[in-house]
Structure to design on (164 residues):
């Protein structure tokens, strides 16, 4: 693994309901990592997130793989990090489009990108190909890890097993 040798870690996450945010905060503490929330420039409303409505914003984004919702802010110095954990809820079997927006903004050359996800029931396997495509120069550690319900000890052990 190349990199700047600092061993610094970042946990970047998108959370629509708070579930992924709780997991990300616990992971950041367990991994001794900085925390960055991927905030949409246009916040998602409850109606936007209604997966049963085929016309809701999230449903429309899901059906159009070219959609890239804008992110409200950027990581100040992505070059300072060797390992970037990227967290998200599973929507329709994969990561939300805003996570792809975030990943495509940066050059992750020489970095480990470690995806983790929360889900109400579906797996994260649909994310693998999309995540690799969004950051092709990174060492993307796949498959994405489902972390919903993992305690601090389990999160810490997992983080230690993947950090370079």
């Amino acid at each position: 693994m190349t990199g700047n040798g600092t061993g610094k870690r970042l946990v970047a996450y998108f959370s629509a309901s708070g579930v992924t945010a709780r997991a990300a905060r616990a992971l950041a503490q367990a991994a001794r990592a900085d925390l960055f929330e991927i905030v949409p420039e246009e916040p998602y409303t409850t109606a936007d997130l209604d997966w049963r409505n085929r016309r809701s914003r999230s449903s429309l984004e899901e059906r159009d793989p070219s959609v890239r919702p804008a992110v409200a802010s950027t990581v100040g110095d992505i070059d300072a990090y060797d390992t970037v954990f990227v967290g998200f809820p599973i929507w329709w079997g994969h990561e939300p489009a805003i996570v792809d927006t975030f990943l495509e903004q940066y050059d992750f050359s020489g970095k480990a990108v470690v995806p983790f996800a929360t889900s109400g029931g579906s797996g994260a396997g649909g994310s693998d190909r999309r995540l690799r495509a969004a950051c092709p120069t990174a060492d993307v550690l796949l498959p994405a890890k489902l972390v919903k319900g993992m305690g601090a000890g389990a999160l810490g052990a997992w983080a230690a097993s993947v950090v370079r």
